[in-house]
Write a structure and sequence with these properties.
Length: 290
């Protein structure tokens, strides 16, 4: 069951007009919220990031946080799986094709749920292979935009190489993956690039930094050079669907020992414990500020 503009219905029955600006221009934003045992993970944070994306594209938020939270919970309840990924999307609505913002169009609001597919155990235990590519995306990567053509092309670079993710470099520095954030370990310190216009502010990124602090792992948020990436002892990917994955090979060269490292192992364990805790005590939605 999905939600479209005020109604719940089976996916097969959902229709949107071809003049939807999401279809014509990719003019919209989205969120993907993992759900464990029917508990949405970091729901408030996802809804705050949605609000930030909408502000960036100057599209008024059609719902309050409480309304969004109710919609998300309703979609979860109407679908059969215990673990889900809830996808939600807002576009600038249906209007005659013209680049300028339409006057008086209502945004299109769409939510769907799918079974959550987290990485297979083999990837968790053995790590994954990645390749690098030049980050040729625009300079507003902090917006969770549905215009994902560059990310799609960059991800396909990995698929074509038999790899799991493409790690992006801009001007000699690490940005992120085509659909994930990236952490490296050098010395005993976890490093990741700062949240700015060059990366998506990942919800999992925040969780991992919090877990590092709670587990006594030193971390630093700062620019990471290509050299630092390529000579790191450990490299990790994070996202709502990948959770935390160790990268054991980058562009055909071993990362560290070629096995998932000690910092990864600790963070992975802390992440699973954190998930289990969150499932027992869901946080109530909070009002948005500002
Ligand atoms: N993508 N960076 C990019 C470009 C992403 O697309 C994603 C997530 C992330 C990680 O963000 P988070 O931890 O909040 O999931 C970073 C989602 C999973 C997707 O597009 O399917």
């Amino acid at each position: 069951m999905i939600y479209l503009n005020g109604q719940f219905m089976p996916l097969e029955e959902a229709r949107i007009p071809v003049l939807d600006r999401g279809f014509i221009f990719g003019d919209g934003v989205y969120e993907l919220i993992p759900v464990y045992s029917r508990h949405p993970f970091r729901l408030t944070e996802h809804l705050q990031r949605l609000d930030a994306s909408l502000k960036e594209i100057r599209l008024p938020n059609p719902h309050t946080v409480d309304e969004w939270a109710r919609l998300v919970r309703e979609v979860i309840a109407r679908n059969p799986w215990e673990d889900q990924s809830v996808y939600l999307q807002v576009t600038r609505g249906v209007a005659p094709r013209d680049h300028a913002f339409p006057v008086g169009a209502d945004p299109t609001v769409f939510l769907m749920a799918n079974p959550l597919s987290t990485p297979p155990q083999e990837q968790v235990e053995k790590g994954v292979v990645c390749v690098t590519a030049a980050d040729n995306r625009w300079l507003r990567c902090n917006i969770k935009s549905i215009s994902l053509l560059a990310n799609v092309l960059l991800r396909q670079v990995a698929v074509d190489a038999g790899a799991v993710e493409t790690i992006l470099l801009r001007d000699g520095f690490l940005t992120e993956g085509s659909a994930s954030n990236v952490f490296v370990v050098r010395g005993d310190t976890l490093l990741t690039p700062p949240k700015n216009h060059l990366i998506l502010p990942g919800i999992t990124y925040d969780v991992v930094l919090e877990l590092a602090a709670s587990g006594g792992i030193p971390s630093e948020v700062r620019e990471v050079s290509e050299f630092e990436l390529r000579s790191a002892q450990e490299v990790m990917l994070t996202s709502s669907t990948k959770e935390i994955l160790a990268v054991v090979e980058l562009d055909g060269r071993k990362v560290g020992s070629g096995r998932p490292g000690a910092v990864f192992q600790q963070l992975y364990r802390l992440y699973q414990e954190f998930k289990a805790r969150v499932m027992r005590t869901p946080a109530p939605p909070q009002a948005l500020t500002g």
